[in-house]
């Protein structure tokens, strides 16, 4: 399975995917990593591994993913031979035409048990709501925000005294197990 990764930040989930590949737990290869943020550490991680990288030019828009940029991203992924796209901390909403280029083959990881707490900083939403359990979800991307079919979920407890940081860190440990397993599961279907 040839993967393409899109990320805007640290890329710890991409690292977890690479580690699972190295450990023989995931039969895949990351062909390209693209970011809308030229300074994102995810690009550094990819370069260190000799993975092709690229910048997504969002035409100066702060949050929008303009159609031309989606078209360019789809073309770049397809040229790299990508079969499945993994969003890993990618902060823009993916729409057509990128969705159409990879039907049912774009995954996202979300730091909550969807459909609970979609959107940003879900670990803070969980703390504010006072729930005793949250988690992580890998789902297929559709046109909504964090709404596509769930592939895998893992539960994470909210512990007494948790801060936003401690809870987010615990969720990320679960994410790093979950993402490679979800890719393997989707690849087998
Ligand atoms: C993760 O918490 C993920 O759930 C969310 O963004 C964060 C990305 O972290 N979508 P990283 O860049 O993979 O370290």
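^ structure tokens above, recovered residues below v
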């Amino acid at each position: 399975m040839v993967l393409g990764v899109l990320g805007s930040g640290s890329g710890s989930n991409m690292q977890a995917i690479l580690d699972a590949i190295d450990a023989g737990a995931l039969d895949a290869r990351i062909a390209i990593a693209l970011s809308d943020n030229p300074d994102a550490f995810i690009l550094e991680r990819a370069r260190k591994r000799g993975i092709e990288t690229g910048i997504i030019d969002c035409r100066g828009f702060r949050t929008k993913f303009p159609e031309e940029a989606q078209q360019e991203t789809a073309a770049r992924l397809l040229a790299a031979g990508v079969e499945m796209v993994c969003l890993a901390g990618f902060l823009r909403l993916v729409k057509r035409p990128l969705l159409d280029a990879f039907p049912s083959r774009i995954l996202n990881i979300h730091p909550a048990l969807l459909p609970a707490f979609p959107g940003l900083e879900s670990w803070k939403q969980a703390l504010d709501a006072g729930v005793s359990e949250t988690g992580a979800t890998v789902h297929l991307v559709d046109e909504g925000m964090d709404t596509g079919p769930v592939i895998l979920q893992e539960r994470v407890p909210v512990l007494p005294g948790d801060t936003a940081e401690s809870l987010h860190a615990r969720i990320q440990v679960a994410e790093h197990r979950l993402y490679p397993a979800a890719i393997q599961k989707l690849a087998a279907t």
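The chain has one domain: 2-121+134-155+172-187.
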